[in-house]
Amino acid sequence: MNMELLQYLPRRYKGETVYSMAARLVLNDISVSTSRSLQNVFHNRNLQLDSAFPSFIPALAEKMGCSCDELVQQHSLFPYFSVFANGSAIRRALTALLNGESSVAYKALGLLASRLADEAYLKYCPVCATQQKVAYGETYWRREHQLPMVNVCVEHHCKLIQVSRKRKQLLFPESDKPSNYDIDVVEMKLAEISTGLLSSGHFETAKLLRGYAARLFARGLATTKSVHHGRWFNEMFEYFSLLRAHDDRVAQLFSKQSEHGFPANVFYSDKSSHHPIKHVLIICFLFEHFGDFVVNYSNASTITTQQSKVKPLKQSEIDQARYKRVIHYLNQNLSLRQIVKNANVSAATVRNIARSQGITLTSSKRKINDGVERLITIKLMVGWPTEVIAARLGVSKSDVEQVLSGHPEIKALRQRIRHYRKRHESRDSLLETVAGLSDLRVKHLKDRCYRDYMWLYKNDRAWLFDTLKQHSFSNLKS
Ligand SMILES: [Zn+2]
After folding, report:
1. Helix-strand-coil split of the chain, %, nearest 5
2. How far separated are the first and last CA of the chain, in Å rounded?
3. Among 114, 43, 54, which residue's Cα sits nearest to residue 78?
4. In the predicted model, is pLDDT for residue 331 greater than 60?
5. What separation in Å is there between the alpha carbon of 340 and the centre of ligand 1?
6. CB-facing half-sphere around the CA of 402: CA atoms within 13 A
7. Cα separations (Å) of 69 from 95, 97, 145?
8. Which of 335, 336, 358, 363 is nearest to 347 (CA)?
9. Contacts 24+ apart (CB under 8 A), 131-140
10. What percent of the chain has pLDDT above 70?
11. Each residue of 191-237: pLDDT tens digit?
12. How remote is the CA of residue 129 from the centroid of ligand 1, in Å?
């Protein structure tokens, strides 16, 4: 017989990090230790898998059956860290990265000089992780969640869970963790901008700075001749007060003793690269959302500062006004698309604000009020079938399902409730049948209550066999 071994390529998920893929490969190699697996898979037992610029890209590309370029552009943080660097620096860094010289790559992009450390944590979204587990039977790390200053999931608007890195332990996100939706506008904005940068291509420094200058002028933070450094610093200092409190790098950037002179120092030399977090902070402060920044950048060559004379406003006032505008439109029941257009904000911002206000975004008008929604939620929690809830409360089944879709944790709870209910019924039915049997043979029991027997056999086998033994059934297999 001619047996041909099929070579299956390992799985690679959309937006998965290179760490995630490498860790899975190492984990799937059955060895006595992680070091031994590292040796087997990558021929290096001391390899550091979780670095932002890992040295194993060529080896991983070979294992995954794809190009180095695909891994770098679609699965590594390189596009983020190089988005503001100049062309020759990017080429030098990329060559170094593919030669396994991580520190040379960092240096080429100006990341060492800025003394801003790597992320201390691996991060994941609990909703994403649970969805991954359901869809693929395993979880993986998403690239956009590993970016500096990103603490929320842009897709699900909840806080990311942080996991401390461990050098000799391979880590994966955990599914079924509770989600926390208590996030603020600045956090959401930072996540949107940082994620946008992953796929935005490259920004030319001179044009970028012209765009910043025009916006600073419009905000009264610059004249046509110079930037008001002190005032700019103070406004940003205040705007990022929350972030400064829980992100050491940001606190360090704004430390008043610092000789670096952020934010004005981005203007000093357009030859050297700055750490992307400096630009992300400036963009977040100066622009309404990522799209606003990109449009401003594209027009930067034609902007003259004279064109943009408007009354200067603090960014926090602008955010506040925008927030009110969005709530106003939400209360008018406008569709997501209309609000994005009318309020000049991104869809993610609208969803975020809607969630913080407890408003459900629907394309059509909401049919049920808050009181009814609460009643539906309670009945869903205690496991009532959706059609029964609909009939009792006089709403449609799809209204009930809509409420349920907003509560993944209740969905899981309902599955558990159904399971226990079914177990209770099946055990009762089986015991009743046993009591009525004169000849205690498994075959007879099965004939009388086949469905319950099979359900218990699949889901509750230990109890089933214990019960059969207790009743001294003959011809038991185990
Ligand atoms: Zn998510």
Report:
1. 55, 5, 40
2. 38
3. 54
4. yes
5. 21
6. 18
7. 11, 11, 21
8. 336
9. 132/13, 132/173, 132/175, 133/175, 133/176, 134/175, 136/11, 136/13, 138/24, 138/172, 139/172, 139/173, 139/174, 139/175, 140/13, 140/16, 140/17, 140/20, 140/21, 140/24, 140/172, 140/173
10. 89
11. 999 999 988 878 888 889 999 999 999 889 988 888 888 899 999 99
12. 7
Query: Which pLDDT band holds residue 306 (cuts at 50, 70, 90)?
Result: very low
CA of 280 to the centre of ligand 1 (A): 21
272: left (phi over 0), alpha (psi -120 to 50) or beta: beta
Tell me the CA–centroid distance for residue 125 and ligand 1, in Å.
5
**Cα separation of 170 and 37, whole Å?**
11
Name the amino acid, one letter, at 291: G
CA of 99 to the centre of ligand 1 (A): 34
**7-19 b/e with 16+ CB inside 10 Å = b?**
eeeeebbebbbbb
Q: How far apart are alpha carbons 265 and 300 in whole angstroms?
A: 20
Cα 52 to the center of its chain, rounded Å? 17
CA of 55 to the centre of ligand 1 (A): 28
> What's the gap in Å between 131 CA and the centre of ligand 1?
9
pLDDT of the residue at 79: 94
Q: How many CB atoms lie under 10 A from the CB of residue 305? A: 17
Q: What is the Å distance from ligand 1's center to 50 Cα? A: 21
How close is the Cα of 25 to the center of ligand 1, in Å?
24
Task: Give tens-digit pLDDT for 357-379.
Answer: 777 776 544 567 777 887 888 78
Cα of 450 from ligand 1 centre, angstroms: 43
CA distances from 176 to 123, 153, 413 (A): 15, 16, 11
Q: What is the CA(175)–ligand 1 centre distance, in A?
A: 12
The Cα–Cα gap between 175 and 177 comes to 6
Confidence of residue 150 (pLDDT cuts 50, 70, 90): very high
Contact present, 179 and 156 (Cβ < 8 Å): yes
How much distance in Å is there from the Cα of 179 to the middle of ligand 1?
10
